[in-house]
TrEMBL record:
Homogentisate binds at residues 229, 253. GO terms for cellular component: cytoplasm. GO terms for molecular function: homogentisate 1,2-dioxygenase activity; metal ion binding. Residues 158-317 form the Homogentisate 1,2-dioxygenase C-terminal domain. Belongs to the homogentisate dioxygenase family. One of its GO terms (biological process) is L-tyrosine catabolic process. It comes from Exophiala xenobiotica. The keyword Cell inner membrane does not apply. InterPro entries: HgmA_C, HgmA_N, Homogentis_dOase, RmlC-like_jellyroll, RmlC_Cupin_sf. Residues 319-350 are annotated as: Disordered. This is homogentisate 1,2-dioxygenase. The keyword Repeat does not apply.
Amino acid sequence: MKQGLGMYIYAAGSTMPDKSAFYSADGDFLIVPQHGVLDIRTEFGKMLVRPNEICVIPRGIRYHVALHDNEPVRGYIMELYQGHFKLPELGPIGSNGLANARDFQTPVADFIEDHENTEWTLYGKFGGNLFAAKQSHTPFDIVAWHGTYYPYKYDLGRFNPVGSISYDHPDPSIFTVLTAPSIPHGAGTAVADFVIFPPRWLVAENTFRPPWYHRNTMSEFMGLIMGNYDAKGAGKGGFQPAGASLHNTMSGHGPDMQTFERASTMELAPQKVGEGSMAFMFESCLMVGVTEWGLKTCQKVQESYNAHSWGPLKVHFKRPETSRGVGNDEKKNGVGDAKDMSSVHDIKGK
């Protein structure tokens, strides 16, 4: 379990039992709350993680999760089996931008005095299986710590996005919060990227501003924390908070019909998008499988997804009958005819 990643959707209606803790030996957990607040006690101290914040708990660290004010919780998790998350290289952006190191928060040491006549249950995830063990003292007995291996949290509202101020739609990698590079696959690929689509201004001219239609060598798992995603409609059959979509490697996708029509006819004045919204993406260079729960048991799969999103799209371009030297009474061979060789390369030697 030290290669790859896992993606989960979680929900809970009660706090973990008293005197219990959990850890994963398989990988680092990146937790994205969508509803409800997580009150997390780790070996290093406490973190209160709200929707629109994320936290990372590295492999092996023990922690206990309580529901703040007993409110049910729901959200997403990406588990990284190899390497660790880091800030992306900023390149020409310079020394600051995107997720700044100064905005990440770490817990302050806080310990429990419970080490006599007590019993704690420790739950462990190991090799994809769950185990339980008893111990005679609390795991939360660290009185001080220092070093480079620790849990942390980040407020997504602190993200400093960049974008085009002239034309065209840049790749979504410009919105990367955290990344786990894939060394064997070369530069520009990642085992895991955590990307967000925050509130931002769009000012590009002569441009189709939503994400264009494409196929991608990366697998894209998208979720929505709140609000509406600007490339998909809301409402019945649309992309809603707590929902998710997966476009695996080389699966074609792009804006739905209503987004296409709106973006194709709108006035290209400066526009604020994503206000009150936060969509995100778990992206990976790896091919992603789907569990039985995800395909069937959850009973939430939108079977008409393709028809609803792209079925209504209309053809807007048609080749003129007289194009490229082909007349109505001439055979169309796709590369022009003898009267017009403008589309045929001259490969004869000189």
